[in-house]
Write a structure and sequence with these properties.
Length: 431
């Protein structure tokens, strides 16, 4: 596993001090990985400075208005940091979304885009974002005292172009309905897929590169660190040894690898950067991808494996058991996940690190969604799942681990697998 570094020991306690800064580069919407990081930073007295991506109503990107800004933390810097180029006009006055807005499901595969126009939009998007980042840093430096530690957490990810046709096609890519299923490779090789790939790179990876490059003045006056959130599969356990697995098709995966490469390049030039590859959780943005939550359930196996006698584990198991039907147990649930991951097709094709990122096929998606459905049916209420409880454990554990690892930040990419998250949470509960 080239460049694979999994954290197996809890990092030494970070030496941040009250008066240091955590800068959130990107807007916080609902529950996500960054919430755990913010909580840990606040516990240690860091001042948290927030950002916004701005808003669009008539197609024009703008700052937050007075009412919108009043609902944000008072430290928010009101410079719109929206990334990407899907709504950026080219010289002919059209945007990439304009090009695809009238495409229908019966002709999406044959749709052809004007790539010269797309390239111009891409350049304009990069120019606009870079200008806004410079404006952002000018204001940020007025809020930061020289010499203080600055930890900048990059949140930007995704980038599906904002046109209805994309979600319509992706819905068929991730749902195994025999007469409607679209293999992800077919989508990826189409003009729509190529545009999606470019958009993912612009939002997920290029923003990190621009962020670090445009912060050189800040780096001269303050010790500065940069983190980004990655996904590159996760090691889990279904009862015995830990093994690596990944959701497929994770079509952001190529952009996430590009993000890792940017971080490695910066580290070689003595800039402290790290991409933290976090486990799967269930969020609003991931809910369309049924099955992405399946690796979450084995977190319970890790707790049982590494701390069966601990009160923290026992309380968590009780909390999760209460969400299941009276005729189902946690062991029943874990048996379903064990069966899925031991399936020969899954084991030989989708649990192989070197194959990441990987496209899907109908059989694999059918097995994944069937596993998901079987577990959902074990619950008393399909809107109140064990995954919500386990997601909170992941958020808490990753936030604390990232905060403390970031101080020394010895690696350009780090995998936070189930084992270290469980070890850390158990150690904190007994501290």
């Amino acid at each position: 596993m080239n460049n694979y570094f999994s954290l197996h020991k809890t990092p030494v306690k970070a030496q941040y001090r009250p008066g240091d800064y955590l800068v959130i580069f990107g807007e916080v919407f609902g529950r996500g990985y960054v919430n755990g990081l913010i909580q840990e930073a606040q516990k240690y007295g860091l001042e948290v400075i927030y950002s916004t991506v701005g808003r669009r109503e008539t197609g024009v990107l703008r700052k937050l208005n007075t009412d919108e800004l009043s609902k944000q933390p008072s430290s928010t810097i009101n410079v719109p940091l929206e990334a990407g180029f899907d709504l950026e006009k080219s010289s002919d006055g059209t945007t990439p979304c304009d090009q695809v807005k009238d495409i229908k499901m019966d002709d999406w595969l044959n749709a052809k885009l004007n790539w010269q126009s797309v390239s111009e939009s891409e350049s304009e998007g990069t120019k606009r974002f870079t200008t806004h980042v410079r404006d952002y840093f000018r204001e940020l430096r007025t809020k930061i005292k020289p010499g203080k530690n600055v930890f900048i957490a990059h949140l930007m990810a995704g980038g599906v172009p904002r046109a209805k046709i994309f979600m319509a096609v992706l819905n068929r890519v991730v749902k195994p309905k025999a007469d409607k299923f679209i293999p992800s490779q077919v989508f990826w090789n189409s003009d729509l897929g190529i545009l999606c790939d470019k958009s993912f790179n612009a939002v997920t990876a290029d923003t990190f590169k621009i962020l670090v490059e445009e912060s050189k003045d800040l780096q001269k006056t303050n010790p500065t660190r940069f983190s980004a959130y990655g996904y590159h599969g996760t090691e889990i356990s279904t009862g015995s040894d830990f093994f690596w697995q990944s959701y497929a098709p994770y079509i952001q995966g190529w952009a996430k690898v590009c993000l890792e490469n940017h971080s490695a390049s910066f580290q070689k030039n003595s800039v402290k950067t790290c991409v933290y590859n976090c486990p799967e959780i269930l969020t609003n943005s991931s809910s369309i991808f049924q099955g992405v939550e399946v690796p979450l359930y084995p977190l319970l196996s890790s707790f049982k494996k590494l701390g069966a006698d601990k009160k923290y584990t026992k309380d968590l198991l009780v909390k999760c058991q209460e969400l299941l039907r009276s005729d189902k147990t946690i062991d029943d649930l874990l048996d379903v996940t064990r069966s899925f991951y031991n399936d020969p097709e899954i084991k030989s094709n989708f649990n192989v690190f070197e194959k990441f990122p990987q496209h899907n096929n109908f059989s694999q998606m059918q097995k994944l969604v069937d596993c998901s459905n079987r577990i959902i049916e074990m619950h008393q209420d399909e809107k109140n799942l064990v995954t919500f409880v386990l997601s909170e454990e992941i958020l808490k554990g990753t936030g604390q681990l990232i905060f403390h690892d970031s101080y020394l930040m010895p690696k350009s990419s780090v995998w936070l697998n189930h084992d270290i998250i469980v070890k850390h949470l158990l150690s904190q509960s007994s501290a």
